[in-house]
């Protein structure tokens, strides 16, 4: 955090006054207004369904349909108290017998999104990889704070590892795990814990730690502090009183990274989480873990759900699928 101050071109009229960064009155006033409005937002638990509906409407409007599958099957992974809904995507090119499967954990800050909101992404990865993708509809906060969501995801993974998905063509010996954002948090932790059992890990703009919610090296993209507001929200409604130093919440803090499965890591230039994803890539490579690292400089967090707005959201899952074939076949 103690980096040296770099010289700034005079034409940008950038200056520090009493510890405050000023980019001209209009931009500063706009940022202050945004922050003021965000600070007024008070979340009520009964609003969660409204939020889900808005997310669903957004993805319906801005995400193009994914490729057609040979079959799509919804079922529950059994549990005495909380059966976990899952959706299995089987592409036309997948094996007829048991084959490799990616277990996918959607993002949404642990409080929103679902299998539906991330269907397009799962369809594109499955089609490209010619492999099954099993999407998990884990429990969400605030109704179910930590560790409910991670418990559900681990339950599905253990179900698959025990060979109980064999009737659906899920080969227990050829499993990978992936997720975006909050799903990336749980993916990274589970890849650490089950490193001997997994063939690959897919981390798409992952949230890797909750101990520090402000970027260590802020850029212009952080001016509105939207990331800080979102992470405060997660701390309040998902983390609650849990230990943010725990690797189950902050997998970036895991010290033993030897023997982890090969990783595909995506970061975005317009994403508050960009630095921690890059740092995890460096940690993995330092521990001799193969990593394919992709940085989309002009993309924002969550762009893979909006393929009509971002053409890259249609092509990047194809590259993820190729990585899956190389590491899981």
Write the layout of secondary structure elements.
Layout: E1 15-17, E2 20-22, H1 25-40, H2 48-62, E3 71-77, E4 84-90, E5 99-105, H3 119-129, E6 132-136, H4 148-161, E7 170-180, H5 182-193, E8 200-204, H6 226-239, E9 263-270, H7 274-286, E10 291-300, H8 312-328
Parallel strand pairs: 5-6, 5-7, 7-8, 8-9, 9-10
Antiparallel strand pairs: 1-2, 3-4, 4-6
Helix pairs in contact: 3-8
Could you characterize what this model shows?
The chain is an alpha/beta fold and 329 residues long. It has a single domain, classed as Alpha/Beta hydrolase fold, catalytic domain (Rossmann fold), CATH 3.40.50.1820. The protein is built from eight helices and ten strands. A hairpin with a 6-residue loop joins β3 and β4. The N terminus is likely disordered.
Give a summary of the structure in a few sentences:
It contains 8 helices and 10 strands.
Report how far apart the termini are: 42 Å
Strand order of the largest sheet: 3-4-6-5-7-8-9-10
Mean pLDDT score, rounded?
86
Unreliable segments of 5+ consecutive residues: 1-28
Output the CATH topology: Rossmann fold
Strand content: 15-25%
Helix fraction? Answer: 25-40%
- The number of helical elements comes to 8
CATH architecture: 3-Layer(aba) Sandwich
Structural class: alpha/beta
C-alpha-based Rg, rounded: 20 Å
> Judging from the principal axes of the Cα atoms, what is the shape?
globular
Number of strands: 10
Instruction: State the CATH superfamily name.
Output: Alpha/Beta hydrolase fold, catalytic domain
Question: SSE order in H/E notation?
Answer: EEHHEEEHEHEHEHEHEH
Give the count of structural domains: 1
Sheet bearing the most strands, described? Answer: 8 strands, mixed
CATH class: Alpha Beta
